[in-house]
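G., the chain you wanted modeled:
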Amino acid sequence: MSVLTAPLSDVHTTSGVKVRPGEPMTARARAPWSISADQFGPALHSGATAVDIRSQSDRDRDGILLGALAIPADDVLARLVPGTAVSLVGAEFDRRWVLVGRDGHDAEMLTWRLQALGVTGARFVVGGQQLLSRSAARGPLGAHTARDLETYAAH
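Predicted structure as tokens:
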């Protein structure tokens, strides 16, 4: 199943328009959709949440993205858009999410869909995990993950 046609419950956008799966959507960009690999660490440190949309087999082969939520690409829209039956508790229209795919292509399309549904803080990493793993910014951690690691190391 393509991430563009993944099932999604009815959602209300911030404009109050009800969007149903399969309906065409028009999005007007309110901010850049992408960040580069070297902007990934600073984005996490400033409060964004990383979302690893790669398949489990990709994570097993290429490694995990420490501190990221692992949500399959087919489930991202339903989990990150507020108001669905399976939305994450922290899903809000202005929440900052950074989607990381294998090469960035699926994450780009999902970011477009999220923004079209009113989740204006959604971004994706250009080049995905492939570029992150080769960049000088390898291994950046969000503040919550750094705190957790400090706690584990102290015990």
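Residues 30-154 form a domain with the Oxidized Rhodanese; domain 1 fold (CATH 3.40.250.10).

Shout if anything looks off.
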